[in-house]
Amino acid sequence: MSTFIEQWQDWHADRERELADPHGWLALVSLDWLSEIPTTYSAAPGVWWQDAEAAYVDPQGAELSYEGEPITGVQRFELVNSGAGTRVSAGDVEVEVARRSGYLIRVHSPKAPALRDFRGVPAYEPDPGWVITGTFERFPEPRPTTVGAVTPGLHHVYQAPGLVRFEHDGVEHELTAFNGKSGSGLNILFTDATSGVTTYPANRSLLTAEPAADGTVTLDFNRAINLPCAFTDFATCPLPPEGNDLPFEVTAGERIPHERTDS
């Protein structure tokens, strides 16, 4: 039991250090959607715009760099929709470029108020009873799955490789799983009966290791985490897919952040 708690505490400390990164999610100070008209934005140096395929920036005298090299003319960014973004450096800030149907830019500043005031992430006490063994059932082919977003009118499309089935209090439940962010394992977006009460209402995320050859997969709900939208209004996080609303209380994992309860 002591080892279990110590391992969770180490994981939780690493999680809080990640959130406190000077250019991480708590460092966001703006979000702007690009248009086809070249535009200047108060938080992001340069002139920005998009077309149907890509986003563009013209530094117009601003000192910008991309992948370690100065940007001296118009720079083009063609990204995967709902995929990873990329970063442009401008002094001590980083401008994130991402594609979410259209293109957006977000400025990460180490002087962001949310970063300055960060007090850690509230969480339930670790409980080995919330470490549950499930079974992963792979689809014959990954299924493109459209989900909503915390941003009204926005949708994300992800590839779902299969379902995870597990039992809780003698009742079987199933959750649609997406591919893990690191290229292995699974990422399960879900809500439950604590959502909007003690946990963030829109979503939480549970990452797992790669399922075993027989489909066995461990669901450690103690490590259910908040998505960036729980901490900042400058995120466009996905909502869980249909059916991923658990009808019982998952009293494990991260709770509503201080930033939300304070406001």
UniProtKB/TrEMBL annotation:
Pfam family, one: DUF1684
Taxonomic superkingdom: Bacteria
Name used for this protein in its record: DUF1684 domain-containing protein
